Amino acid sequence: MRRILIVGAGQSGLQLALSLQAEGYDVTVMSARTPDEIRRGWVMSTQAMFGNALRTERIYGLDLWQAATPQIQGLQVSLSAPPGERALRIESPIDEPAQSVDQRVKMAAWLELFEERGGTVHYQGVTTSDLDGLTSLGRYDLTVVAAGKGELVSVFDRDPARSPYTTPQRGLAVAYVHGMTPDPLWPVPHVSFNAVPGLGELFVMPCHTLNGNCEILFWEAVPGGPLDLWQERRDPNEHLALTLDLAKQYVPWIYERCANVELTDARATLSGRYTPTVRRPVAQLPSGGIALGMADVVIANDPITGQGSNTAAKCAAAYVEAILAHGDRPFDRAWMEQTFEWFWESTGRHVTGWTNAMLQPLPEHVQGILGAAAGNETVARRFANGFSDPTDFENWFMSPDKAQAYLASVAS
Amino acid sequence: MAKRHWKVRPYVLTGGRTRTRQQLLVHTLVSVPYYDSVFAAGLLPEQRTLYEHARETRSLAELSAFSGISLGVTRVVVDDLASTDRLLVHAETYESPFDRRLLERLLDGLRKLA
Amino acid sequence: MASASLPDNPTLTSAKIVIAGGFGVGKTTCVAAISEIPPVNTEAWMTAASEPIDRLDPGIDKTTTTVAMDFGRLTISNDLVLYLFGTPGQARFWPMWDDLCRGAVGALVLADSRRLDASFAAINYFEQDSDLPFVVCLNLFDGMLTHHLDDVRQALALSPDVPLITCDARSPSSVAQALMAVVTHTMQRTGHTAPGAFPAR
What per-residue confidence (pLDDT) applies to B46? Predict the structure, then answer.
């Protein structure tokens, strides 16, 4: 039985662990926190997952929350221009429902499930010296690092050719709230994307959290701009007040739905910022061991396209497939590089290219697409479905000539 | 498309052994119940070092520090050795660190030094 | 003072108190004052940024830092031993703090009245990120209290339910009293909760 060590217990690490466990592998997970600590901890993400990503979980029976979680039916895009006035509104259904399950709920339950099924979990934040020792111990056939938010990522070298940014592109501020009223214009569960050109974006989405269903209010602020008030970690209630204050000023149609909101719990906020970075997939440790990076360890995109957990799930599925296909052969450096390149080619580069483009002022052809989408259901739906399958964007969205050709084809 | 995978039953995954899954905290005590030099000679380097150092009752953190082996590796190796009964992970006598009997005993002990 | 070896007793069990605080506030002195073994220093090296990093940021630079934590030991009886774990100086190594605090009885957060800011991060950790009961303790380096405790409490923005005490970290009896304050505070904080309602952390 092949022995796999997975460092990190988030979407990608635990999905990989549970999938490989089901396939008969002897899997060990190192988690910095216990299930109980995760449940009592701070919110970690917004984690809206779309059809293609959810499918990778469901194959292994891991979507345990479908019945309890609001089924997101579509995407709504609004432009606030000039700031505070709604210049454009696009609503589009998506082909398959999306859903967001608070990772405090999900990761805690997945860890327990993994242990119940006989998996070994060691509760420890892994340092570089631990990783060095663990990879050279000879106990594991393969070590995968899936701890994207810790210090361990820095053992993976940044890939400058795939990382156009050297500084954070948005300040991030998340708040989970109860008490938001439904959108009067489109009262079905949906992800609402509200862009304030040049300044940032506010996302609103339904989510299943520790104490029932809620909404997530998520500001993305262009650094140094008037929305960027998230340099310091604030008291949660102050964080919420500021979130609402900015909504009132810049996206009043959202603020109108927030008269009675309150935080879902005492640790329902998150703020921070990071530099979108693609890293090289193999870490070489001083004592000779090697480790394979996965998900946001090696591909950390800005959350503006909401792809973090989707990419994590797809990465887990891709790695499972590559591990199974490799049989009993050694998981050497060449296999690791090949595995990542395959994932990069099939998923990573599409998500990264699209996400990095969305961080910039929208080019003319994208403005043209959004303008067309406002009056054309087909265009709107193709854009919305791209969140499930971002590989489609290169066929029509990413370049002016393809956009023009596509818009001409739907117009005729 | 959506097929459910469950190829191996849980007990097979643990090699049939019943895990007590004693949490290995940094202050958890471990000791070697009966030292076996033949067993020791057959161990891999890290296992052997930790086995030798655990002849004296020690916490996981002490074991790691005295052996010069990282805490992460110490946890993994101790867990393996404990599953073979070659190493004893001392049971937690108290239900929780907030058990009143434990706290009272600590107070009594500290009072002697105060 | 007990011998350096622990009793050879299969029912020997252990408890733990965390000694936290900023760099140079006397954590090692405090552990050394009461430990029956010389404080054991264990090092873990990490690749880490030299500047404080955001807890979301994966884009940190590659430099290697050694994080040291030290711990001491106190035999309470033939079947019970108390460990004292000093946290690494910088709060940003929070996964290690979680590991040290998991299953602890409580924490003693040391502060130096001449530079209270050195312990802000530690206090923030216990107030915001951990549910472990903790006591803040002003280490009187010269044995004298130069500030009113009320002023210190205000400067640290301590909530009223966090005890603020003083000690001389060089003195075994003073450290023992400080640790008693931690145990007593934990008793008060957890006294009315059912077993399991306040899970190990």
Answer: 93
**Chain C from 112 to 131: CB within 8 A of any A CB:** 129, 131
Q: In sequence order, which ranges of A262-332 are alpha helices (DSSP H)?
A: 308-325
Say if residues A204 and A181 touch (Cβ distance below 8 Å). no
A31 touches chain B (CB under 8 A): no
Strands B88-89 and A299-300: unpaired
In a mutational test of the C interface, the residue from B21, B24, B25, B26 whose CB has the highest number of chain C CBs within 10 Å is B26
Architecture of domain A3-62+102-165+275-358: 3-Layer(bba) Sandwich (3.50)
Q: Is the Cβ pair C96, A127 closer than 8 Å? A: yes
Question: Which residues on chain A are in Cβ contact (under 8 Å) with B5?
Answer: 19, 22-23, 59-61
DSSP string for residues in C140-161: -TTS---S-HHHHHHHTT--TT
The answer, yes or no, to whether residue B35 has pLDDT greater than 90, is yes
Helix (H, G, I), strand (E, B) or coil at C165: strand
Identify whether C162 is part of a domain.
yes
Give CA separation, A300 vs A146, A222, A295, A384, B38, in Å: 12, 18, 7, 22, 50
CATH number for the domain whose boundaries are B23-111: 1.10.10
**For B75-92, how does the pLDDT look when each residue is reduced to its tens digit (9 = 90+)?**
999 999 999 889 999 988
Residues A167-226: pLDDT tens digits?
A: 999 999 999 999 999 999 999 999 999 999 999 999 999 999 999 999 999 999 999 999
Answer whether residue C17 is part of any domain.
yes
Q: Convert the pLDDT of each residue in C64-116 to its tens digit.
A: 666 677 889 999 999 999 999 998 866 556 778 899 999 999 999 999 988 89
Q: What is the mean pLDDT of chain A?
A: 96
User: What is the span of the domain harbouring residue C87?
Assistant: 13-190
The domain spanning residue C64 has which CATH number?
Answer: 3.40.50.300
- Give the architecture (CATH level 2) of A72-99+167-272: 2-Layer Sandwich (3.30)
Q: Total structural domains in chain C?
A: 1
Check: CB of residue C181 under 8 Å from CB of residue C110. Answer: no
The whole model's pTM is what?
0.92
Domains in chain B: boundaries: 23-111
